[in-house]
Amino acid sequence: MAYLLQVDFKMDGPFGEEMSQAFQDLARSINEEEGLIWKIWTEDAAAKEAGGVYLFETKESAEKYLTMHSARLTSFGITDIRGKIFAVNDVLSTINNGPIK
Description:
Mean pLDDT: 94
Strand content: 25-35%
Largest sheet: 4 strands, antiparallel
């Protein structure tokens, strides 16, 4: 069973193309995280929010990443970090073409 991690937080920017340029090294480093299957980056410039949706192989790897990522964000001065972990229902997600593998 895979586990979905949803993280969001307030951020002043950058967004859009600037975000794409500024965080490429970070994006590459995330690929090295234990148990990561994929990440989708999220942003809402108008609301000044950013975050991501991640799929991990195990709940433990999702929890470990959330702990590390929350500490990293806090070190950048970001507060009000929201993170939730959900078990993925493979059968129903497959019916709806969910990218679960």
